Amino acid sequence: MFVAVVLLTVALVIVSGLLAAVLAAVLVRRDGGTRPTALKHATTAFAAVITLAAAVTGALSAVLT
User: Fold this and answer.
1) Which residue, of 1, 19, 30, 63, has the greatest Cβ tally within 10 A?
2) What is the pLDDT of residues 9-32, one digit of tens each?
3) pTM score
4) How far apart are CA 55 and CA 25, in angstroms?
5) How far apart, in whole angstroms, are the C-alpha atoms of residue 61 and residue 22?
C-alpha cells in the first residue's frame, strides 16, 4: 500500500511539472519568444516544480520523524 502511494505521488508531481513546463512554453511563444527561449523557460519551470516537491518532502519527513 505504501509503495503504491509513493508511486502515485511521484507520478502526480511529474505530471504537474510537465503541465507547468508546457504552460510556460506556451506563454513564452504567445509573447513572441523563440523556440529555444520557450524551451529554456519550460525546463526552468519543470525544475522548479521538482525542486519544490523535494523541499516539501524533506520538510514533511523532518516533521513526521
Assistant:
1) 19
2) 999 999 999 999 999 999 999 999
3) 0.89
4) 24
5) 30
